[in-house]
Design a protein that fits this description.
Number of helices: 11
Shape: globular
Number of strands: 7
Oligomer: single chain
Strand content: 5-15%
Length: 257
């Protein structure tokens, strides 16, 4: 996917603003690094592969807030995923797609018939079911995640763990304002045209979802706000988001992985 370049003005602002933040918060960052090193073994900075603007993949920096090898335990926690709570099981969801309004007669389906989990379903409806399931289970958020350290809980609640991302901004991987870059396991599920608009906007440290998103995990709301930023991005929008980010830092709402 081709991407437009960030305007010169936005890029200059990103570099200057990030440089000032890194300079002002350097004592806090040094103390944070020391606390992380004392509490648990492992690297001070956690580096993950994230998908940003135009599906570009880059190294994403955060202060480590989890114990070592936390990523290997992710599959064990998927049954605690807050985004999946209160949703019907996948097989029950499949039953909702068995009747196809485009199949005129049982012997003349609109697409080849498939047999999934013992049910007969036309291919078009099955593909729609798969798209819906991907949408519902794309994001992962775990309440009281046992992988998080004591220091990690504090730096997450205070957003100190995000400070190294200003290095990403200076490098040009991200902007101060944009859509949060996604882990590859989330981004690979957002490939349809409607869902991919979020990748046409810069990856950012803060954005519409961070300041306007509800406390209750809602993937539909998150994707809608991400797409809305692509439609509304401007100097005015960025300034409003930056100003609203400051009070939102004290909301202490549940954080994404």
């Amino acid at each position: 996917m081709d991407k437009q370049k960030v305007s010169t003005g936005k890029r200059v602002f990103d570099v200057v603003f990030s440089g000032i933040i890194l300079l002002v918060t350097s004592p806090i960052m040094l103390l944070t690094a020391l606390a992380i090193a004392i509490e648990s073994r492992g690297p001070i900075i956690y580096v993950s592969r994230r998908v940003g603007w135009g599906y570009d993949i880059f190294n994403f920096y955060k202060f480590r807030s989890m114990y070592r090898d936390a990523d290997t335990k992710l599959n064990d926690l998927k049954n605690k995923n807050a985004y999946a709570n209160d949703q019907a099981k996948k097989e029950d969801r499949l039953k909702e797609f068995l009747v196809c309004p485009d199949c005129d007669l049982p012997d003349s389906p609109c697409s080849p018939l498939l047999y999934i989990h013992g049910y007969q379903i036309c291919e078009n409806r099955y593909l729609e079911y798969k798209r819906q399931i991907r949408k519902e289970y794309t994001f992962i958020k775990v309440k009281d995640d046992p992988r998080i350290t004591k220091v990690g809980r504090f730096i997450r609640a205070t957003h100190i763990d995000e400070l190294p991302q200003f290095v990403n901004v200076i490098k040009g991987d991200m902007s101060v304002v944009g859509n949060r870059p996604l882990p590859t396991y989330e981004a690979e599920n957002l490939t349809t045209d409607m869902l991919s608009y979020r990748f046409l906007a810069p990856a950012g440290i803060t954005g519409l979802w961070q300041v306007y998103g509800s406390d209750k995990p809602d993937p539909e709301e998150r994707m809608s706000l991400d797409n809305k930023y692509f439609e509304k991005k401007s100097w005015k929008t960025d300034l409003i988001i930056i100003l609203k980010t400051i009070p939102s830092l004290f909301k202490f709402k549940s954080r994404d992985l």
